[in-house]
Write a structure and sequence with these properties.
homotetramer; alpha/beta; Alpha-Beta Plaits; Rossmann fold; 2 domains; four-stranded antiparallel beta sheet; 8 helices; 13 strands; 32% strand; globular
């Protein structure tokens, strides 16, 4: 749901137990917040964990940001919450990392420009110069950070320093470099990656060629948060596209591009609207 | 979500305003209810309407059904709620109405028997004898209520009297008779119908033949609650299936059967789990 | 299937009967053509109609274009064929007509530039100046042809004269003007239009608003050839996207844009690869 | 496409080269065959392989089965074809193997009885007695062939001897035993299996539980021919179903059942209509 009036969103996860929803909604109610959307979920596997996302009008709400943070703290402590507060008036700032492929970047920039993705893009970073003209089209600064295998640690360190304080999350829009653990550690559950997915999986080189040889009838894409386990972080969005024996390897690549950009854009939209909570290695998408 | 421990579900709709969620969750909390699932939605078109579905453990909850009804009443009145309470231990009872086509009935009976649809089926009613053996297979009583055009009012009146007190809702599983307004009035938003849907729509006779002639690439199905406006009640579930020029009219019919039974089963599942709220002509599906 | 070596494609429709495939493939074989793809379809409704699409290598084929046309003519006459020949080396030229909405144009231009759509774009025509910067980005000439209701006939006549001889087909990429019959007559089955599709259909104004009020669970798009019957020409491609009660009218519009641009791009690809044959009001898509 | 008049279907694969289609269609034409459907495909990876499926009316065709086999042989030899001939009047005979889960068997039996699957079912075999009542409902003989781990070779040998000469192909409708190589060898590309598919794949035990823990957004199913490489034979059909964090492990199992039975039924339909050709480890589905 798009929210146009300025809104405040609370994201909460904590051990499950009675009274949480009542405490949170009382808090909002007492300070004259008008709830716009609220969603909860509990998971009951071994431990009981509770998740909540609540949006309410900023207009009319009696507390400033600082007051909100201070006064909610006792409730958060009482229920052992992990929590965060987000104001729609303060858009997230994103750094987009690309290499040479442009399909995801084109799609993100168009959606961003057309108002679908509420975010600011202070920069695009690439290890190749190829996509600078595309960045120029949309007036987004483009910075070249070449990465060589032998100096990857130092190369990415420079990149990390450049980004410091400028962005809230990163998108790997077909960025063909493995990120150093130091980069991942700096943006926990704040780096969104996209990769193709096949049924069955084809590990290793040339997956499209091998999918073609196997005659798969579906190819898909998965958008996920980056963790230290490559491609195994919490899944945000997935989709597939049908194919058949008439599709050449090149057709599979074309279809793969389509599903990749669609799934990545969806994941970014969910993230910018603060709809994703992560627990262990699983995402809760409200 | 399937809930296996006995649970209580509250369905609420009312004019939107602050304090509703707090009041409801306080009520549950005070009486020692442990919330399992809770979902809310507000719609802001002209008027502001609020919808809520909350499930909590029956075990440990301090109130009996009668106490719950009595003590919640003041809250309901304060917020001008339409509301209902459902216990999973008390399954809904459904009457299934069929004619000659068996694809929807077969699917419903199998899913019911396999535990996917938490409901009791006291009877199947048909205006034709054809599907009695299928009912027998599953041990469900089958009653023949022929309907003639000239005596439809009286015929359906007899049917209505037979059903009285025996069921909570009805499924029209390809029942090829228009229901009298008196029957519809008896089961408001409690009769689920399935019909095929085409893009574009083909009004009138032989829609599959006309869809074939037009070369449609999709055919779909819509499950909805029956109202006095034929096929125009609130939509519960919809889906489509792809087709192409190689599909004969008969192939379209076969694909139509597939999507119809899938969509009907989904709508029935949502209804039996008390996941559907209706406001004006729109359904909210939690 | 993408064909990279230069290829020749034959499209044929004729009354069905024995010997057609043999005659065509003998013809190709005798003149040393190596068949790359071949697909046939017959429809048996009342009359028997036969459709065929065959692609073969241009390299090695013994006949020039003129010779091919001349020598195939007797076969075409023998079987009462409607037929056409297409060389991949000679890309189709397309004129794109737009108004103010950019989602379809953006998508078409990106796919065109990335090589997915084998076509030349001599010009973009619009009745509004808004999308000229987008055309400039991709270096495509943009011409403003305002259309006023009172002078639509004359306005479109000027447009028609401008286009004459410059293009092989037209794309209406959300062009919000009804085309004059004189324009349609000039490009029979060569104007591709896209429009949203709902289940059920919502005829008239504000369909997204009405779809929202009805609570539809699907919205779709249909790409079709334009005929004199508005929005009722042969369907080339269709798809849908799921939605739910959380989607605002604006979300439905966003999802509608997504499915529209996807379906339009697919229809254009099929057309540029000569994969669509039309018979009566139905398309055969190979 | 369903073919109701008796038809003959030719399936051909051979090294690609000019003249094949002409030779085959000439052959059919000369003997007064009226082609109903014809589809070809060539694959150009390293070697060039050609695939063809042609159906023509049995009525009016001048050759008996024996004459057809004899007279086509020289053409087959000329082009080094692997080929087979199928008469729709002679339905394939299938043995269905099951264990305890009934969702696939229920679906197959219903579709078979309703005429969707043109095949005879001489028997159902199981290593458990559980599904005998279901077989009885549909009047299909049910044979119990227990399989113990220590004696699996001998157990399956007895089964193999029992089946000999009775069936043309096998369906593993959730048969939870690994087939001995001797069984697989007896029915090359004639054993259809169904298994769940996840993105990413979860190898090993409890895949639904692990998919739940990972928070997958899709689960799928793959129908394939059984080869000696477990679950790695040529894919016939695949599909997926969407899911989200609200789905419990049990919901995933339910959705998995739905997509499994749908995909298996589709694969069986394609096989019974002789629409699947296998080349190396890939299926061509016409």
């Amino acid at each position: 749901m798009s929210i146009h009036k300025p809104a405040i969103t609370l994201l909460i996860s904590c051990p499950d137990g009675p009274g949480i929803v009542a405490a949170v909604s009382n808090f909002i109610f007492e300070h004259k917040g008008n709830i716009l959307e609220s969603d909860q979920h509990s998971t009951h596997k071994g431990e009981y964990v509770f998740f909540m996302r609540t949006s309410f009008d900023e207009e009319g709400f009696a507390l400033s940001r600082e007051e909100l943070l201070a006064r909610f703290q006792p409730i958060a402590e009482q229920f052992h919450m992990q929590w965060s507060v987000h104001y729609t008036r303060q858009q997230k700032r994103v750094g987009i990392l690309v290499s040479k492929l442009d399909h995801c970047l084109t799609d993100l920039l168009w959606r961003w420009k057309s108002g679908e993705l509420p975010m600011d893009i202070p920069f695009i970073i690439s290890n190749h110069p190829d996509l600078e003209p595309l960045a120029d089209m949309y007036g987004v600064p483009y910075y070249l950070f070449p990465v060589r295998r032998e100096t990857r640690g130092a190369d990415q360190q420079r990149m990390l320093e450049f980004m410091e304080g400028k962005v809230d999350f990163l998108i790997l829009a077909r960025y063909m470099q493995i990120l150093e653990p130091s980069v991942v550690a700096q943006y926990p559950h704040r780096i969104i990656n996209i990769h193709h997915s096949f049924l069955p999986a084809f590990i290793g080189a040339n997956p499209y060629q091998r999918a073609f040889e196997r005659g798969v009838k579906l190819i898909g894409a998965t958008a996920h948060y980056v963790t230290d386990n490559l491609d195994e972080g919490p899944i945000i969005a997935q989709d597939v596209i049908h194919c058949n024996h008439r599709d050449t390897t090149e057709d599979l690549v074309r279809k793969g591009r389509d599903v990749e950009r669609r799934v990545l854009a969806e994941a970014v939209r969910l993230h910018t609207e603060n709809r994703v909570l992560v627990h262990e290695n699983k995402s809760i998408v409200f």
